[in-house]
């Protein structure tokens, strides 16, 4: 073991929990493109968004100017339940890799939702409650977001209707039961409870659902039910805003330790974790105060950054949502059945897409057997069984640390460990049994997805 | 929310991790009765125990005199991976109960084994490695202990053979996969791999196994395989010694906060958690320095303290282990299929049995629907989904807090939250579906178990 002046785990005091979220858009020269009304192709106004989203969340969604937004005390109180989350020095992993690199990870999985999703769920539930709503609707794939929202709604006494992608509903009954324990109403999607669900079932009998389809159902219910709004766990600007608490705490902890990050790594599905983790660091970069290598990691089976197009696209299968400009594989793209359910979305946050487009961050894609190899190594030496999603970041952190071993550089590598894999044991079993396979879409596969991009891009 | 000078979560510094375990036996006037050789009915010597257990662990097992035993640095290093564990002030629960009581819980579930079991697993693996062994064998029921031991063996590069009660092996495939991810060899018990397993299968075709039977198989393999020894996750004196780290950290944290506990509550199966949590408090009580109400909570379906006999009994079904004097329901007692797998053992730690017999602690039993009601309430307000075992302590902590509400007393209630329920969702589903039932054994049921007590008691 190296001599460790820096502790294994750095916990900030409760008094150091941030009281403001950081809005990276305020510091972006090229702002993220606005959401468009799919009918008029004009930027969505707050008024047009009001039937779908909560008022204050719309204000946050459209706010490209204020760098800091106060976190209401009720939310800070809730954050104290599971925050500050630890920044962990990966001494055991460094030793196992025999690398001169210093590896740190911000661990967001030590709460019952099992991931960072709770950071935004509690904020969204709070604003829904404040607006006097009865409840909210949402979709969930792997189930982390649905679980987080169930916990948040239970806390504020809100109804919570979750449309869960049918294949997950059936294959992950335990996530479903956690949501039910928190009082949520969980429906497998597509379902007979919505017009769009009935249409999809008629058109595709026997379908096991998709995230885009579940979004359509949840939005339909929200907009057609008195006192309900729709909430989303990733992609949106407001979500990245709330998740900035991850990066703010990370930066405070690193500053206290006197450590300057060289490389910051996060997995990227819709961008909620990565956008939150990098926010204050990207802010410094945008303001010319510091430089960092920032790396987004996505699955090779769903490579929106690395092989997608930067274009306006539908956010959902039913095409009821506004259009967003983003790196996308097309809303009709169906990724192969990989085991990182949280990284299977066809698009990417508009904020991150713009930053990537402007060359302010890198992206790379990794195959899932390599990801699980890293996950197993990490679990064995660091004692935490990581979520498949988070393990994408672990893979690249390990690769960067091994490069340091070659060059002899003691770089500071920081990555986001977004969650735990306790509900992903089917995937681990596949890996343990040697039955895991990789899949990389062909150019023809991608062309099919791109063919469905809306005409606005022409 | 009450004004909170005391933080929600108190984390000690890494430098405050105890460097010595506390051995409560040293302060006991009436020492726990010794293990007996089932053949000679004489106290087991270190020599007789050597084929089964590791040498240093035998020394700890038989040590009734030294109050403190140094924790080797390698173990302290490993503890830093997940310790110190937080002492949490249950502000949210207090508010929900509207009680003047102050409730604290020591949360041992924030590690991948999901429970406190890792505290002893790493110690036992360390001593096995130090002795130059190739590997260890053990049994596991619900799987927490097996998981913890797998993690510990993986860390020290030891083989780990786990005999998992067949019904758990089949119904809890995910725990099994966590163990496999850590490289353990997991066999459903009873199995064809041992003589005792083959005998049990022949005598009881179709049996789904029991903890006592899995112990017999694990002991047989350890004693008949070169370079292997057997390790156990509860009941034994050495395990309570290692688990004293829970109580030592709890006491340090309470002392720093200036809080004197009035009531200390823990669930009790074999006694590993309760014995560890109460150790330093019981020490003060034994030395006449302070007084505490200490309450053991057990399931009504397996009531060894509250309805058992204080007698010498077999520790395993195969009767290959030494006899232990303890509160027991008889090694042939089969508890009903309750959902707290970790609390289904027929006996209880000799240390705790003696302390209970001497009136130094109380015991109570609770029914599982009441336990899950408490678990759900706790999950919703405190944000942690508790293990069914731990929820026994939650139930009684809530009951005591509600008594405080009646009397207006602001008592300090401390309980042990031993683990998380992420692998217990079948039980939660039963509760969510309203299909959970209670079962209390009749006096006739108990009489059958007592009939199998060995003759030494006559």
The overall number of domains of chain A is 2
Helix content of chain A: 40-55%
Biggest β-sheet: strands ordered side by side in the sheet of chain A: 1-4-5-15-10-11-14
* Strands of chain A, count: 15
Mean pLDDT score of chain A = 95
Major protein interface: A-B, 44 and 44 residues
Structural class of chain A: alpha/beta
The outline of chain A comes out as globular
* Strand content bin of chain A: 15-25%
Largest beta-sheet characterization of chain A: 7 strands, mixed
Rg estimate of chain A, integer Å: 21 Å
Write the topology of this structure:
Two copies of one chain form a homodimer.
Chain A: E1 9-10, E2 20-22, H1 46-49, H2 55-62, E3 68-70, H3 73-82, E4 87-89, H4 91-97, E5 102-107, H5 118-130, E6 135-140, H6 144-156, E7 159-165, H7 166-171, H8 173-181, E8 185-189, H9 195-203, H10 211-224, E9 228-230, H11 237-257, E10 263-267, H12 272-286, E11 293-299, H13 304-307, E12 309-314, E13 323-328, H14 350-357, E14 362-366, H15 368-382, H16 388-407, E15 412-417, H17 425-432, H18 443-451
Parallel strand pairs in A: 5-15, 6-7, 6-9, 7-8, 10-11, 10-15, 11-14
Antiparallel strand pairs in A: 1-4, 2-3, 4-5, 12-13
Helix pairs in contact in A: 2-11, 3-5, 4-15, 5-6, 6-8, 9-10, 11-12, 15-16
């Amino acid at each position: 073991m190296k001599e460790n002046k820096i502790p294994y785990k750095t916990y900030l005091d409760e008094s150091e929990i941030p009281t403001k979220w950081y809005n990276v858009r305020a510091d972006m020269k090229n702002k993220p493109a606005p959401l468009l009304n799919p009918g008029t192709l004009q930027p969505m106004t707050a008024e047009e968004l009001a039937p779908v989203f909560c008022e204050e969340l719309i204000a946050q969604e459209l706010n490209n100017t204020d760098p800091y937004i106060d976190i209401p005390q009720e939310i800070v109180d809730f954050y104290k339940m599971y925050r500050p989350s630890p920044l962990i020095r990966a001494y055991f992993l460094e030793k196992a890799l025999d690398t001169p690199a210093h590896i740190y990870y911000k661990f967001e999985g030590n709460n019952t939702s099992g991931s960072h999703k709770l950071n935004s769920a509690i904020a969204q539930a709070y604003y829904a409650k404040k607006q006097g709503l009865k409840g909210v609707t949402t979709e969930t794939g792997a189930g982390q977001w649905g679980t987080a929202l169930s916990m948040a709604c239970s806390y504020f006494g809100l109804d919570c209707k979750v449309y869960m992608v049918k294949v997950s509903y059936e294959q992950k009954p335990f996530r479903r039961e956690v949501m039910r324990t928190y009082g949520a109403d969980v429906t497998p999607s597509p379902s007979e409870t919505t017009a769009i669900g009935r249409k999809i079932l008629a058109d595709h009998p026997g379908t096991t659902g998709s995230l885009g389809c579940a979004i359509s159902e949840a939005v339909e219910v929200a907009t057609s039910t008195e006192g309900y709004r729709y909430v989303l766990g990733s992609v949106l600007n407001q979500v990245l805003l709330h998740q900035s608490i991850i990066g703010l705490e990370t930066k405070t902890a690193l500053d206290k330790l006197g450590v300057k990050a060289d490389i910051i790594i996060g997995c990227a599905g819709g961008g909620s974790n990565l956008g939150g983790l990098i926010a204050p660091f990207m802010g410094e970069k945008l303001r010319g105060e510091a430089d960092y290598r920032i790396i987004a990691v996505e699955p090779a089976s769903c490579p929106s950054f690395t092989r997608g197009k930067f274009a306006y696209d539908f956010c959902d299968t039913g095409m009821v949502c506004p259009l967003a400009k983003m790196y996308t594989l097309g809303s009709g793209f169906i990724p192969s059945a990989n085991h990182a359910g949280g990284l299977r979305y066809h698009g990417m946050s508009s904020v991150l897409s713009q930053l990537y487009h402007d060359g302010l961050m890198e992206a790379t894609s990794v195959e899932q057997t390599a990801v699980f190899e890293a996950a197993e190594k990490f679990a064995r030496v660091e004692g935490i069984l990581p979520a498949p999603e988070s393990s994408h970041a672990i893979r690249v952190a390990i690769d960067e640390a091994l490069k340091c071993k070659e060059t002899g550089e003691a770089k500071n590598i920081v990555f986001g460990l977004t969650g735990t894999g306790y509900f992903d044991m089917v995937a681990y079993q596949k890996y343990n049994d040697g039955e895991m396979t990789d899949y990389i879409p062909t150019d023809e596969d991608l062309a099919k997805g791109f063919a469905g991009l809306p005409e606005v891009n022409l």
